[in-house]
Structure formats: C-alpha cells, structure tokens
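tl;dr need the bound structure. longer version: we got a ligand (zinc ion) that a collaborator sent over and nobodys looked at where it sits. i said id run it. heres the input, straight from their email, havent touched it
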Amino acid sequence: LFDASMVQVTNALTRLSDEASSVRSAGLDSGLTNALTEAAPIYRALWWLRHDAANRRWIAAVRTLLAEHGDSAAQIEARIFQRPWASPSVRVDVCAYTNWAGAYTTEGPSHMNMASLSPGNRGTLGFETLFHEVLHTMDDSVFTALRDAFHTAGKRYFRDPTHPFIFYTVGATTAKLFPGHVPYAEAMGLWARNPDYVRILPLLRQHWQAYIDGTITLAEAMRHIAEAW
Ligand SMILES: [Zn+2]
C-alpha cells in the first residue's frame, strides 16, 4: 500500500511480548500496569504464539489484497471524500482482539487497531475495514457538506452522521474492486437493524450514488439527502 500509499501494518503485541519493561514505561494507570505485568508471563506462555501467528497470517493476507487494489481504493475514496489520502501515513496495529467491532481508530495522531481473529475482518472484509477506518480520519469535507445541507433545510442530522456514508462508500468500492464481495454493513445486517441506517439507505442509493458516479456534486447530493430526510 500502502508502501506507495501509506499504512504501516504492524504486529502490535510484538513490542509488549518482547519487552516486559515496555508495560512499565507505557504510561498506563498503575492498577492496569500491575495487572498486565502479572498476566504477561501467562499470556506469553499460553496465547502469544497463537496470536502472533494469527496476526502475521492476517497481515500477509491483507497485504496481498492491498498489492492488488490498495492504490485504486485509496484513489477512489480520496476523490469521493474530497480529501488527500491519509498522509504521511496511518499506523495500523494488529492484535488478536481489539473491541466489540473488531477495529477502531484514535486520532491525533491517527492510529488504527485491527483484530486478526474477528470474523468481520476475514478476507476482503479485512480490506474493507482497513479503508473504513482510514476514512474516519478524513471525513471532514463530507461532514461539513452534510452539516451545511441539514442546516439550510432546517433539519437535525442524526448521530454519528458520516458513518453510513463511510459504510456505503467503502462497501461499494470494495465490491467494485473485488467482484463478489459482500459489504460489511450488508453482511452484518446494519442497514436493516439501525433505524437511522434503514432510513438513509435509499437516499444513499439514490443521491450519494449519483455523486459517486459523478452526475451531481457533493453539495447537491447532501442537499437532496437533507431535503428528503
Ligand atoms: Zn466506523
């Protein structure tokens, strides 16, 4: 990728596993430091080899997909989100487990954590989630357009408003690059389960898709969505 386009995928727990002292110097709460220091030898003996192998397998698999279509996905999504692709780089750490969703991103600086054992990160879903997480760090143009359009329409936008745009865009892009890919939100039933998502999906299909296809502008797409909301 990301060699050209910049995500370093690393095996996060290597550091923790290699250096016991890194737990002490990580600046964590002392109770947590003590618990981790006590658990570390057990973790190392029982789990680390398996988790390390799973992390390496995940990294190798996603690197193959990235070599194939990583640059195209970055280019397409940067154009749609009207932001330069995440630069200079986004750090991606891979762990056996991360959070309930299987991936999360913290900002300032951008730092992504991906779970190698999460079923939602298998195969091309891992590729999709990687790009999904990066878009969380570059969604401000989309947010500004959305906020302005809802303000003009005199409507309140929903909670976490750029998220369905990220799901839709990355899902559609991944499916275009890897025919047969079922987007994450579809595979996990998000479009059917979350009431805001149920409501916005037809608007995304109509207006956001028209913007993706280049027939209307970002501002026009948001205006249509806000008016129909
Ligand atoms: Zn997300």
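gonna send this back to them w/ a short note. The pocket of zinc ion is lined by residues 132, 136, 163, 166 (CB under 6 Å).
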